[in-house]
Design goal:
Largest sheet: 7 strands, parallel
Strand order of the largest sheet: 4-3-2-1-5-6-7
Number of strands: 11
Structural class: alpha/beta
Radius of gyration: 20 Å
CATH topology of the largest domain: Rossmann fold
Shape: globular
Distance between the termini: 52 Å
Length: 383
């Protein structure tokens, strides 16, 4: 039985992870869970899964939760980054699934790696901002980084048993988001509610907005570079609106291996948790007789400049990737609060990249400092 710490248990990936565990209680035990401040939902999860530890990042929420725990339940309630680090490094835990949103996931993930915990990674920012450091630490500690993103899970599966030296390129698929087929003039005044309406996937707010700008795909390109040790020139993006093919790998002999399934994040989560095994699942299966068409398009980088900004930042490397990520995080939050417009997101990301003096071979402390600088820079610009 695998013992799991789940960072971000109340978000979209977190709740779907618990659904996978719920269906396979003989295979998994939830040792620890965490959330930001969702007291009521994490209490429900505590009552159902009986973890030994729970972290609420906000101290007030943690104190409130303590007063709500029934007397017959033994659990340690923690808060802050210290709490996240503690539950990520518990001796009894086999795997840490990190579904935290944002840079907050970086330090607990690094600490988990240092304590030789395998990582099921759904937190994009960890690899986007510190990919080289994270992958080097994983190699040094004999730790597996198992991708939870459907696209990276697909590539991981397509590479299984293959000679990595014979890979020609990786092909990431994108649904195109809610604005596929639109032009720039159509999107000048779109609202957050329009941007949140993803056609195929059920996701959290941040990733839904990133999908609407195609920044999500840009971040995935960066992740893929570090996960699979591939040059940015050998990572393509193709828009595939049906979201049946989750990604592909082209080999030097021109063969292409693809991974297909119905769009359901639980499959990628389950594969990461059960790897190297597969288990019987009741997810919806593809009925090829009913699949009339699978279509593919080139992404429109003029309408969706965030994807080009991500490629540009990856090409430059160094701490430009931290700036890209941090500025996007701040700007998406402001867009969700109706403080800026849709195209202000790429506009101010580009401004922050232009203003940044990049650091060659950054250490973890450098990355955290650049992250702080970027957030401050964007907030000052928008005062």
């Amino acid at each position: 039985m695998k013992k799991i710490t789940l960072l971000g248990s109340t978000g979209s990936i977190g709740t779907q992870t618990l659904d996978v565990i719920r269906q396979n209680r003989d295979k998994f035990e939830v040792v620890a869970i965490s959330a930001n401040r969702s007291v009521d939902l994490i209490l429900e999860q505590i009552l159902e899964f009986k973890p030994k530890y729970a972290v609420l990042y906000e101290r007030e929420s943690a104190e409130k939760l303590k007063t709500m725990i029934p007397k017959d339940i033994e659990i340690e309630i923690l808060d802050s980054i210290d709490g996240l680090v503690k539950i990520s490094t518990l001796d009894e835990v086999d795997i840490v699934l990190t579904a935290l949103v944002g840079m907050i996931g970086l330090i607990p993930t690094m600490k988990a790696i240092e304590h030789k915990k395998d990582i099921a990674l759904a937190n994009k920012e960890t690899l986007v901002t510190a990919g080289e450091i994270v992958m080097k630490a994983a190699e040094e500690n004999g730790v597996k980084i198992l991708p939870v993103d459907s696209e990276h899970s697909a590539i991981f599966q397509c590479l299984n048993g293959e000679n990595k030296k014979q890979v020609s390129k990786l092909i990431l698929t994108a649904s195109g988001g809610p604005f596929r087929g639109k032009k720039k003039e159509d999107l000048l005044h779109v609202t957050k509610n329009e941007a949140l309406k993803h056609p195929n996937w059920s996701m959290g707010q941040k990733i839904s907005i990133d999908s609407s700008t195609l920044m999500n795909k840009g971040l995935e390109v960066i992740e893929a570079k570090w996960l699979f040790d591939v040059d940015h020139k050998d990572i393509d993006v193709v828009v595939h609106p049906q979201s049946i093919i989750h990604s592909m790998v082209e080999y030097i002999d021109t063969s292409v291996i693809a991974q297909l399934s119905m769009p359901d994040m639980r499959l990628a989560i389950e594969y990461a948790l059960t790897y190297p095994d597969r288990i019987h699942s009741n997810f919806e299966r593809i009925d090829f007789k009913k699949l009339s068409t699978l279509t593919f398009e080139e992404p429109d980088m003029n309408t969706f400049p965030c994807l080009k900004l991500a490629y540009d930042a990856l090409k430059e490397g160094k701490t430009y990737l931290t700036v890209l990520n941090a500025s996007n995080e701040v700007l998406v939050e402001k867009f969700l609060k109706d403080q800026i417009g849709f195209y202000d997101i790429p506009y101010y990301i580009e401004k922050s990249l232009d203003a940044h003096n990049s650091i060659l071979n950054p250490k973890l402390d450098d990355i955290l400092e650049v992250d702080r600088w970027t957030r401050s820079y964007i907030n000052d610009l928008l005062k």
